[in-house]
Design brief:
The protein is α+β, with helices and mostly antiparallel strands. The chain folds into two domains: 46-146, 3-layer Sandwich (Rieske Iron-sulfur Protein); 167-387, Naphthalene 1,2-dioxygenase Alpha Subunit, Chain A, domain 1 (Alpha-Beta Complex). 21% of the residues lie in helices and 27% in strands. The chain contains seven helices and 19 strands. The strands form five sheets. It has a seven-stranded antiparallel beta sheet. A four-stranded antiparallel beta sheet has the order 2-3-4-8, with no helix packed on it. Strands 1-10-9 form a three-stranded antiparallel beta sheet, with no helix packed on it. A hairpin with a 2-residue loop joins β2 and β3 (67-73). α3 (189-197) crosses α6 (332-364). The longest helix has 33 residues, at 332-364. It is globular and about 100 Å long. Bound molecules: FE2/S2 (inorganic) cluster and fe (ii) ion (FE2).
């Protein structure tokens, strides 16, 4: 009897120990040091930051990769981007004015900078013979306008062409209509990229979104990740619409008002359902999977009649600029019908309500530590990219160090 009681007590103690261990299990990001270091963003990439139509001759302040910049147009309409800190006493130059074409004057003492070079061109309060002229400057950044957006190259060397980095199908697209939303959101940019490419969440988290309200979402699936060029693709191997979980119960998202996606629509459509006919330009691209991700945080989701992109632009370690774009590759009347469709509700439903669920979860994400599961193979493959050579500027890597990781920004600047 006593022996039995002792055995039971020992078994209970073991069980408790095991359950405590299970609860405590969780890994930090030791396995991905380059990923961890990229908290405030990656160097040497172009980032979309604003709609071009919002930038005129008045400076617009932009925070990118932990640095304060400003963007404005010169007298010829060229976009200029400069560091937003006056070297004199550190005031934001973007609070100043463009008194002379191609310049900006700091609001405090009137140091005046050449927008193209960043050099001090005049110092209003120190007279025409000021010694500061030609002896002080602010950093300039390459800036371009493409697809209606302002793109800034966040690096100090000579930039690669923006075209080297754009999703390939956007370099010379046929006629298209574009709808989009740019929004500053709380949460680290890497969590947004992970969330966008995360296999597991869409079918569960987004099942309640208005965008999916009439569509059945699968219960679970099996995938693998295919790397092609600069992109990682999620490729579905198996899909299960419902499942019986032993000892727990059945899960299904089927409801009488929900429509099952049609299966014959093509492999790249994933679980999105869709149109009767795929857009020929989209179909011609032969994407291996409907969701893909590339550096420096660009998600591409291929639908039958449009492509949706999300650019996760690092503002700093704790904030991300969400740039959601929807491209429909059609001209003429279809283009105007798209704008009607998009502005009449889809913008709110897709780039608002649906994507707002992602914002909600990313802002709540608190990792590491973390305990990853099978569908997180998508996250792991993404993280591995950070310790591989720069996918675009591979030619400029140090030859002695082929393992040289992507250069990362070390963090913010002094306030
Ligand atoms: S702080 Fe800018 S001119 Fe003095
Ligand atoms: Fe999502």
């Amino acid at each position: 009897m006593v022996k039995k009681m002792t055995e039971n007590a020992a078994r209970d103690a073991d069980k408790e120990k095991l359950s405590r261990r299970k609860m405590a299990l969780g890994r930090n990001w030791d396995a991905w040091p380059d990923y961890e270091a990229a908290e405030a963003g990656l160097h040497d990439y172009w980032y979309p930051v604003l709609w071009g139509r919002k930038v005129k001759k008045k400076p617009v302040a932009v925070r990118l990769c932990g640095k304060n910049l400003f963007v404005m147009r010169d007298q010829d309409g060229n976009i200029r981007a400069l560091h937003d800190r006056c070297p004199h006493r550190g005031v934001k130059i973007s609070l100043g004015k463009q008194w002379w074409p191609g310049t900006i004057s700091c609001p405090y003492h009137g140091w005046t900078f050449d927008l193209k070079t960043g050099d001090v061109a005049a110092v209003i309060t120190d007279g025409p013979d000021s010694r500061i002229c030609g002896n002080a400057a602010v950093q300039t950044y390459p800036a371009r306008e493409r697809h209606g957006l302002i793109w800034i190259y966040m690096g100090l060397g000579k930039p690669h062409a923006l075209e080297d980095q754009l999703p390939e199908e956007l370099i010379n697209p046929p006629k298209y209509a574009l709808g989009g939303r740019i929004e500053d959101r709380s949460g680290n940019w890497r969590f947004y990229a992970e969330n966008g490419f995360d296999e597991g969440h869409a079918k569960y988290l987004h099942r309640t979104s208005i965008w999916r309200i009439f569509k059945v979402m699968p219960t679970w699936n099996k995938i693998h990740i295919k790397k092609q060029g600069r992109w990682l693709y999620r490729v579905e191997d198996e899909r299960y619409w419902e499942a019986e979980f032993p000892g727990v119960g059945k899960w299904t998202n089927k409801r009488w008002w929900k429509i099952m996606p049609k299966h014959k629509q093509g492999k790249f459509l994933g679980n999105t359902g869709g149109a009767k006919r795929n857009n020929p330009y989209i179909e011609s691209r032969n994407f291996p999977g409907f969701a893909s991700l590339s550096m420096p945080g660009v998600l591409r989701i291929v639908y039958p009649s449009f492509i949706h992109y999300e650019f996760y632009v690092p503002i700093d370690a704790n904030h991300t600029k969400y740039v959601g774009l929807m491209f429909q590759f059609k001209g003429g009347l279809s283009k105007w019908l798209f704008y009607l469709w998009y502005l009449g509700g889809i913008r709110w439903m897709f780039h608002g309500n649906f994507s707002g669920q992602d914002h909600w979860m990313v802002a709540e994400t608190n990792a590491p530590p973390e305990r990853l599961y099978r569908p997180d193979v998508s996250l792991m493959e993404w993280r591995k990219l950070f310790s591989q050579p720069h996918p675009i500027r591979g030619d400029e890597l140090d030859d002695d160090n082929p393992e040289q990781p992507v250069r990362v920004l070390s963090g913010g600047e002094k306030p």
